[in-house]
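Table S2 (text version). Query chain:
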Amino acid sequence: MGIFDRYRHRLQRIPISYRIAIGNAAVIALGAIGGTIITRHLATEAADWWLILFFLSVGILLSVLVNYLIIKSALRPLRDLSELVQRYQTGQSTIDPQDLVNPDPDITQLAAALSSLVNQLDERNQQLQALSERAINAQEDERREIALTLHDDTGQILSMLIINLERLESQLPAEAAALKTKLAAASDLARQSLTSLRKIVYGLRPTILDDLGLVPAIHWVARTYLEETGIHTSVNASDELEPLSPQATSTLFRICQEAVNNILRHSQAHNARISLDQQDREIRLQIEDDGVGFDVAQASEQAVSLQRLGLLGIQERAQLVGGRVNLDSTPGKGTRLTVFVPAARSGG
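Corresponding structure-token output:
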């Protein structure tokens, strides 16, 4: 290591505030000495005022230039830290103080604090994602159990009630017309209750999703929720899709349900379109409507404060299976939600 490198290394150990103070002191001292020498020289030579003004201007410019170079050199560690933060924002996984080209005691300590904070945030984020995944899986299991219980127990009870009411109605004599009317009304109420129960069961966990797969389940959602309310809906699904994991299948179905509910509640749409296809190794689900639309940035900012967590839930579900979400909406021009989910690997 040469003498220059040794002094440079020692200088890098000095905090920025000390470097700036030392540099400014050097500029002031050199300016004072230089100014005194030039003043004495000009005084003995009886120079003209324009010559004095020229040297004064040159002295000021040199002082400013030297001071700028000193401050720029002293603040170089801050630029290094800014570059580290920018690299982290563009995808680098961590902030490493060892990556500082021009280390400074204060900046190195700040970088270490930022690195620790980033690591803690990443760890907390991973914990929250794990808890979220566990909660969503538990929710799906509970929905499945509740749906099976309602279907097997309550549904069977209502079916038997309808059968018994019909038998009683058929066994009554002709003169008991008033009682027959009441039994028929009770049978109708039981049938309506059974229809409502089946709709609830299918909303919790449609058997068509487990029995026939994602595409028929999406057709069922469109027919049951959108077309029955007067929204013309088209569903286009590719016949050649790579298989999805059970988690990804449930994720796309739940996202479709949430998007359809948003269309019903907020969009005031007349037409909707749902498409399911494959792009490279990803399955793409796209849901569009011609409704009133909304400001995406404003909705994202106000989602937590207004407790409108539907879009956040969609993003969270997609991220848990390695997917991503694109939302495009403009007030008065409808909304397009696009979800990409990786296809299951062969043998996975």
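Notes on Table S2: The chain has a mean pLDDT of 79. The chain has eleven helices and five strands.
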